[in-house]
Specification:
By secondary structure, this protein is α/β, with parallel strands linked by helices. Helices cover about 40% and strands about 10% of the residues.
Length: about 400
């Protein structure tokens, strides 16, 4: 990981990807001390994985699939998954694959604003089928927007098949493809098999590190083994059996040394109003200070207070980014992914010293321990590259309100 974030005051050249590029230049200038960098597909996997932000799932069966993908990109979505698994009925799978392939070809041949597009097949044996379909009958590679595959139900019994298939698909299409396995199998969930299973998975993933972008967590399936569906008043960390699984995954696979990978946050399932049992989880003060009391009420009415709470807990537990199933959730993930002015300067202070020791924060409100906090600081710099650094005094409320009412497009 690099230890500086580029201070690029220019904006996007055609064909590049950048977070918050749908906001107007005046809004961006007001919000950011350091602007987000253009996302480089050749970035090291940890930085590129963090840059995914909110990864939005869309069913492959949508008749307006291409239009939906382009629309979401214009609204600030950077990464999407075309879903061929849970969102598609068994009898629709073959048609859905054809539809997904046609969409990838269309976007590849008629590129607009680029993004990171993945396909989630039902199983590993579909990966090469999809790759072959993306080739023309003559054997020449048809341009496609495919970035890689999300592999559900990933476990030690299918890991090698899935990882090898992605490598073969890369060779077949003549482009580097990433894989993001989803951990949600019984062997990972059940305590008596978890450590052995995660140890085996770590070995498989390490052997294919060049193609592994991130590890995703299937919280819905994890809860399903116990007949649990978490209420929208709770976060996944309130469901202890699920929180234990997440802790085990991070412990084995989320380490910041060379053995680890970026682990992404699980899906938030809710997006509509409901009768509440508990008080909202959003404090009034930040919204009063920003004259955004009504905006807070809107967030609470759409269950966004629970989502914001869970995103914060994801970060506290070593997870980055999040799977989302509704476009309304994207702004929340991205607003909380931007690095604050305070975080950024703490990170720079920590990385400025190689010999260890303790320094007072330049904000004079904490002590920065140079060795224990170094890995945290490196992750902050990766987030700063992807999501930028906010100006002093700019908080997540400012970003959320700007994203809720974006200005004119930058290009």
């Amino acid at each position: 990981m690099t230890t500086t974030a580029s201070h690029d005051e220019t904006w996007l050249e055609p064909g590049t990807i950048r977070h918050f590029d749908h906001l107007g230049p005046a809004t961006r200038e007001q919000l950011f001390f350091r602007h987000p960098e253009a996302i480089d597909r050749t970035w090291p996997a940890p930085r590129l994985a963090i840059a995914l932000g909110a990864t939005l799932y869309v069913p492959a069966t949508r008749p307006d699939l291409v239009e939906v993908i382009r629309k979401r990109r214009a609204e600030g979505v950077i990464s999407m998954v075309i879903d061929l698994e849970d969102a598609v009925a068994d009898h629709d799978e073959a048609d859905a694959i054809d539809h997904a392939v046609a969409a990838l070809r269309d976007i590849g041949e008629n590129p607009g604003a680029p993004m990171l597009l993945f396909v989630r097949p039902r199983s590993a044996d579909r990966i090469l089928r999809i790759a072959r379909a993306l080739k023309t009958p003559s054997g020449a590679n048809t341009p496609s927007a495919l970035t890689g595959f999300v592999v559900p139900k990933f476990d030690s019994t299918n890991a090698e098949e899935a990882l090898a298939a992605v490598v073969q698909a890369s060779e077949l299409l003549g482009q580097h493809l990433w894989v993001m396995p989803v951990l949600e199998s019984a062997a990972v969930v059940h305590r008596e098999t978890r450590d052995d299973e995660l140890t085996a998975l770590a070995a498989h993933l390490s052997a294919h590190r060049a193609n592994v972008l991130a590890v995703r967590i299937g919280a819905t399936d994890i809860c399903g083994y116990f007949g649990i569906r978490r209420d929208r008043d709770l976060t996944i960390y309130d469901v202890r059996v699920a929180a234990d699984v997440i802790a085990g995954i991070v412990n084995h696979l989320g380490r910041t040394d060379e053995s680890g990978f970026v682990v992404t946050g699980p899906v938030w399932e809710y997006f509509a109003d409901h009768e509440r049992m508990f008080q909202p989880m959003l404090r009034h003060t930040p919204f009063r200070e920003n004259d955004a009391v009504y905006f807070r009420q809107q967030l609470v009415s759409r269950d966004m207070d629970g989502l914001l709470r869970e995103i914060s807990l994801d970060r506290a537990n070593g997870l980055h980014g999040k799977t989302v199933i509704h476009p309304a959730h994207v702004a929340a993930v991205h607003a909380l992914s931007a690095v604050t002015h305070e975080e950024y300067h703490d990170a720079l202070d920590i990385l400025a010293g190689e010999a260890g020791g303790v320094r007072a924060s330049s904000y004079r409100n904490k002590m920065n321990e140079l060795k224990p906090h170094r890995n945290w600081a490196l992750r902050v710099i990766d987030r700063a590259a992807a999501f930028g650094v906010t100006r002093q005094g700019i908080g997540f409320v400012d970003l959320l309100t700007a994203l809720a009412a974006p200005g004119p497009a930058a290009r």
